[in-house]
Design goal:
The complex is a heterodimer of chains A (168) and B (194). Chain A contains five helices and three strands, in the order H-H-H-E-E-E-H-H. With 168 residues, chain A is mainly α. Chain A has a three-stranded antiparallel beta sheet with strand order 1-2-3. Classes of the chains: A mainly alpha (168), B mainly alpha (194). Chains A and B meet through helix 1 and helix 2 of A and helix 2, helix 3, helix 6, helix 7 and helix 9 of B.
Chain lengths: 168, 194
């Protein structure tokens, strides 16, 4: 590889340099230091092997725990209890611990028809409890009475009727 | 140096993908050559270790920019040479008088008498090499120890080929002058070549 023909002096220089470093290798601690420095500045590389093992153990525990919770939930699950009220259904969800009021539109419609067919009924059925927690399926109480009784009888409260015609 | 093996290119590609094992193999491929060169230039094994460590730390940091179609050797040697310049100069500034004296003390010789003279010769040559300016010394080490061509040295040292030739010429001239002026050397040299 040399570009010139080496003479005795060149050979002496070459031999001297080679003798200085012959059999010399970097100690193993150099690579250990390189590896440690890389690990210290690079979070994607594991610094210790046990940290990897610890991460695996934690992941397995989390997985087992979530599976156990799921199994418990499945055991305690029961179909929702439905309580029928005149115009709405109070649905209790035991799993969620909540109660919802579900309006039954068919029942509401039938009740309105009944009111039309019985004009002598003066009072509307008492309003259902509205102090339940609002849910998506609960409608305002006013909406339950959108059909006004068309044939309700209003008593005559005029002074003539109250006095029995004596004032006239 | 400029003809990389397929293995080396594969190692670089794998190391770029984060394969630490490949990076370690790359280290083992170059560690001895780089360490010996740094040792020959600096003459200090602890400094040579420090240089080797820093070269590979920089290589790791520059992995994303490293090319996968050429050998990593020129880049590694260039970093090594630059670090040797910096660290040797820094180390010399901080060197104490005691350390300087220790450098001049003769090392104990345990070899047979037949090898004594050769070792003496080599010791004198090395002493003369260490007196050279660091750029001339580096050129000399790369040329004689690593047997790089002038073009390769020019690439490593980031200078024109003419500069390499010039440094080599003046280094040899100065070495001849220093060594041949030594009467002790002349005696051994004449005896060896008789």
């Amino acid at each position: 590889m040399h570009d010139s023909h080496p003479d005795a002096f060149d050979t002496l220089i070459e031999q001297s340099l080679q003798a200085q470093v012959a059999g010399k290798h970097p100690p193993r601690r150099v690579w250990r230091r390189i590896r440690a420095a890389i690990s210290a500045e690079s979070p994607r590389l594991p610094r210790w092997r046990w940290s990897m093992a610890a991460q695996v153990v934690v992941a397995m525990l989390v997985l087992l725990g979530s599976q156990q919770m799921l199994a418990n939930q499945q055991r305690t699950f029961a179909p929702p209890t439905v309580i029928f009220t005149p115009n709405a259904e109070a649905v209790t969800q035991p799993a969620l611990g909540s109660e919802a009021l579900v309006v039954n539109p068919e029942r509401e419609h039938l009740r309105a028809l009944k009111l039309v067919q019985q004009p002598e009924v003066q009072q509307v059925v008492s309003t259902p409890p509205i102090n339940l927690p609002p849910t998506d399926v609960v409608r305002p109480a006013t909406e339950l009475y959108e059909y006004e009784p068309s044939a309700s009888v209003v008593p005559d409260l005029s002074p003539q009727s109250l006095s029995g015609g004596l004032l006239r | 140096m400029t003809n990389p093996t397929t293995d080396e290119l594969q190692l670089i590609a794998l190391a770029k993908q984060g394969d630490m094992q490949a990076f370690e193999t790359l280290y083992h491929l170059y560690k001895s050559a780089l360490y010996r060169t740094a040792l020959a230039i600096s003459g200090d094994r602890f400094l040579a270790e420090e240089i080797l460590q820093e070269v590979f730390l920089r290589a790791y940091r520059h992995l994303p920019q490293m090319r996968t179609d050429v050998s990593a050797a020129p880049w590694l040697y260039r970093v090594m040479v630059n670090l040797t310049y910096d660290l040797t100069a820094r180390r010399k500034r901080g060197q104490t008088v005691l350390q300087k004296l220790a450098d001049w003390l003769p090392s104990p010789v345990k070899s047979p008498e037949s090898q004594l003279e050769t070792q003496e010769l080599q010791s004198m040559v090395l002493k003369a090499i260490n007196q050279l300016e660091i750029k001339q010394r580096t050129t000399l080490v790369l040329f004689y120890l690593q047997e790089f061509s002038l073009e390769e040295i020019a690439e490593i040292m980031n200078v024109p080929v003419g500069t390499v030739k010039s440094r080599l010429f003046y280094a040899r001239k100065k070495l001849r002058h220093t060594i041949l002026a030594d009467e002790q050397f002349m005696g051994v040299w004449v005896y060896e070549n008789a």
